[in-house]
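Batch job 17 of 40 flagged for manual review because the log was empty.
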Amino acid sequence: MAKISLEPLRSLDGYVAAALVDADSGMLLAGDGTGVNLELAAAGNAEVVKAKRKVANNLKLNDTIEDILISLTKQYHVIRPLESNQKLFLYVVLDRAKSNLGMARHELRTFEKSLDFS
């Protein structure tokens, strides 16, 4: 896999950190930012993705996860499985007071389309 740069995500309002994660293993493939242990977050959020997929499957929702939002009092944590590769997800931490969640989700979709795994 080519080296993936998460630096463009720094332009998100309230940006704290970001990661590209292998959903099966929880391995951190790329990381950027400070204030968050991204390896620990990658592993833990891979479990969140697996659990949500299992529940969706058990409920026979016949749908895919667009993103998972975890709202904390000071931060938003957005987990976005890639449309182009469901084995990977983006994880972004935003300062809640400085971010616009709708714009962040839109910009994450745009960023994903710019990724090239060749």
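Reviewer: the log was empty due to a logging misconfiguration, but the result itself is present. DSSP finds two helices and five strands in the chain. Unflagging and moving on to job 18.
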